[in-house]
Amino acid sequence: MHRIDQPIIAFRRSDIPQDESAPAGDDDPVGKRIPSRPEGELESVTEKVRYWTQEGPQTVNLVVSFVAVSGTVGGETVTIERPIEFFLPTGQHSESYQWISATMRSLSLAARGGYAARALRDLRKVTWDRGPVRCGTNEYGKPLYHPSEVAAIAHALQRILQRRGFLDPEGHPRPLRELVALYRDGSPGGTGAHRAEPSLPVPSGMGPCPQCGGERFLIDGCLTCRDCGYSKC
Predict the structure, then answer these.
(1) Which one of 73, 109, 157, 182 is most buried, counting C-beta atoms within 10 A?
(2) Which DSSP helix (H) or strand (E) runs through 110?
(3) 178 alpha-carbon distance from chain centroid
(4) Where are the domains of the chain?
């Protein structure tokens, strides 16, 4: 019989790819390990996410908290904003709640270890045996399908970090200099990384999506629901 003395999931700083060309003594804030959640208030983003499984529409509320992290690169002190905590509020009862909640805890550990982006990319590959899950739309307003419920939620979390400016369109952290500039120009209450994506106006009289009740936007001349992809075109 094997005895389990350590947690199943372990995060190590050695797992984070290091830049061998970086000068000795550098403390890159992108991969810097944060031992625990900082005390006090954290700036957070809460988003209601709707997706569709074989059992119909599902809705969860996701919370991502951010913190300013400073480091030294090339003898210069720099500060960026990093995600530090992923959270699924209680009271969202479903068969998958415990697994999604456990995933949020693991992501929080990954975020404090400096590799939340890689963890999210890995979760996008998780599969299940209940068919594809529809969540979000592509740049053309067409529905996106994911191999599992976990993968769909990972996609939604990636989108939050992309809108915040931390991730690029491929799901990788932006270059350090860009993150530094975004923090300087887009600190809480400012613009830059915290600026919401502009939405195209909805012609008056069109009303909500008849399929899911979500907002509809004019995409390529066609009124399309960004939540479920419904369109008459």
Answers:
(1) 157
(2) helix 97-113
(3) 18
(4) 25-197, 199-233
